[in-house]
Amino acid sequence: MTPLEAASYWFVRQDAQAMTPGDHDEFEHWLLANETNRDAYQRTAAMWQGIESTVEGGELRALRVAALAAGPEPKVWPRAVAVAGGTLAAVVAIATLTWHLAVGVRDPSVTPDLASAGQYVTGQKQQSSVALPDGSQVAMNLDTDFRIDFTPQRREVRLLKGQAFFEVAKDPKRPFVVIAADRRIEALGTKFDVKLSGERLEVVLLEGRVSVERDERSLLKKITQRTERVELRPDQRLVAAPGESASIGATKAAQATSWHEGWIAFEDESLERAIAELNRYSDVPLVIADDAARTLRVSGVFRIGQPDRFAAIIQELLPLSVRRGEQGEMVLALKDDVDVAR
Fold first, then answer.
1. pLDDT one-digit tens code per residue, 204-215
2. Which of 7, 51, 69, 322 has the fewest beta carbons closer than 10 A?
């Protein structure tokens, strides 16, 4: 059995969660035995990832069944090499052929327009909209930085900081992947928002379908974390921090992503946090004069970059008065006859 054949056998058993404790020990021994085995496993993992994104479910199941059937039974793998090798080689060949036909492997020199790399950045008070080389549209929020690496086989975006709203151009042959923090977000023809605040990641799906899983560099961790892959539906939000399990909840995606259209929505938010968010978009800050007013709750949709408009509206919603400060800031204070504690 060649290293590639053995790699295919082990990968499919891992994927099908058909490993016993003894299998795990034997697999680790094989994987760490030499660089050739590790390289073969990496190539096999890449091949099967391509199959998963392009081959119909029934065909993929057939390939998995064939590969599992070809492999030896647990604890007799070394003695079964000669018997299993021929059958498994055929499975690998079929899988590879299927992948090449589905993905359409191309020579980058023939289609240079599909290969591109670049970096996109906005300042702390700047928003921008950009068109990516594949036709996808990206709205960038304040202080955002991402890099792209597009090849004829894949489209990868690495979000380093900030927030971006993606409208992905359909291209089933080239998966569109956004990597942020320790998560990998994959989409095909969809609209979704990714926000990275420090190490806290938020993903909001407006339209279509995206999957989110850990972006592990360690091969063994990739295998053990496969079960943590989740799929979002429209009007769902995923929140995650590195090393922790993600939480998923319902949200109003149209409101949550309205920043790229010039609006910001609050739903029962504290006045303090609402003003902190609005101040990010304006050179004229809003200031709360009374500590008691900070806990007042705000709901509504407001135009960003218009603090005077917000001040006028908030006086109608809450028991607040507004005045200009000495530095031009807009100061919000409780009206004299108001007691928040009541």
1. 999 999 999 987
2. 69
Domain that holds residue 297: 262-334
pLDDT computed for residue 45 by the predictor: 75
Burial environment of residue 117 by CB neighbours within 10 A (0 to 12, 13 to 18, 19 or more): exposed
Structure tokens at 82: 């000669």
DSSP structure class, residue 8: H
CA 142 vs. chain centroid, Å, equals 19
Contact 125, 137 (CB under 8 A): no
Full-model pTM: 0.63
Position 339 in a domain: no
Is residue 340 a part of any domain in this protein?
no
For 98, 317, 322, 328, the CA distances from 311, given in Å and listed in that order, are 61, 10, 7, 14
Whether residue 240 sits in one domain with residue 140: yes
Contact 12, 65 (CB under 8 A): no
